[in-house]
Amino acid sequence: MGGPTTVSVQSASLSSKPRVLIKQNVGARKLSIENVSVTAGAIMTAVVKMTAAGDENALSFSLSFDPTKVTFKGATLAAAMSTASLVLNSNQAAPGKLGFVVSVPAGQTTAAGTFDLLNLSFQAGANPGSATLVFANSPAPKSLSDPLGNDLVQTYSDGTITIQALSTVLPPTIVTQPLSQQVGAGASLILSVVPRAPLP
Fold first, then answer.
1. Which of 140, 6, 155, 146 is closest to 61 using CA atoms?
2. pTM assigned to the model
3. Is residue 49 within 8 Å of 116, Cβ to Cβ?
4. Residue 23 CA to its chain's centroid (Å)
5. Residue 35 burial by CB count (10 A; 0-12/13-18/19+): exposed, middle or buried?
6. C-alpha distances in angstroms, 145 versus 41, 49, 76?
7. How far apart are the C-alpha atoms of 1 and 113, rounded to whole Å?
8. Quick check: 176 and 194 in contact, CB under 8 A?
9. Is 93 left (phi over 0), alpha (psi -120 to 50) or beta?
10. What confidence score (pLDDT) does residue 197 get?
11. How many beta carbons lie within 10 A of that of residue 143, not counting itself?
12. What mean pLDDT, rounded, does the chain reach?
């Protein structure tokens, strides 16, 4: 099959047709975001992980974040989702809202186990602090379904981006200057200095 497909649209949500709520394996299915640290001003990747039971076909969810702390740069499917498609709603990224729909081909399911689902790229702000990536229901509702369109139950675990201050690296200083010397023309000269580097 071909590689992953990413589509940007104005609204991202799964079909609203009636579904049967399936509650088996409750607690086995989970979406989570790994905590990550980044230097102020740098671009980093936040990984959305999925713990699946092996009967999932499509899911949708939203993320909210503080746009004064981080700026959204983009999203891609992880390698484990090479046959899946991604629909991204980033129309409200400026106020800190993103919507996602991820699905594997019709009739197929994800593998069972825990794997990387999405790679989200953010740029940290200039000031130290933290930004929480919170699972939400808008613009895309939280939903998970099997190949027949039946709803499945899963839990959600938010993630935190910790923004660290830029470290100031001072240049080394010379503690002892070289001594004055007299040499004849063409002779070799060795000058010795004692430097000191600042502690990190």
1. 140
2. 0.73
3. yes
4. 29
5. middle
6. 38, 17, 21
7. 22
8. yes
9. alpha
10. 61
11. 19
12. 85
Decide if 103 contacts 109 (C-beta within 8 A): no
The three-state secondary structure class of 149 is coil
| Element (DSSP H or E) covering residue 150 | none
Q: Please, are residues 33 and 47 in contact by the beta-carbon 8 Å criterion?
A: yes
Cα gap 80→108, rounded to integer Å: 14
Diameter of the chain measured on Cα atoms: 98
Q: Report the amino acid identity of residue 55.
A: D
State yes or no: cis peptide before 139, omega within 30 of 0: yes
CA angle (122, 127, 129) in 5-degree steps: 75
Record the tokens describing residue 157, joined without a space.
Answer: 């675990």
Buried b (16+ CB within 10 A) or exposed e, 155-173: eeebbebebeeeeeeeeee
- Write the CB contacts of 75 (distance below 8 Å, at least 6 apart in sequence): 6, 86, 88, 90, 98, 100, 118, 119, 120, 121
pLDDT at 186 over 90: no
Integer Cα distance of 40 and 117 in angstroms:
26
Query: What's the CATH architecture for 5-164?
Result: Sandwich (2.60)
The predicted pLDDT at position 70 comes to: 98
CB 101 within 8 A of CB 58: yes
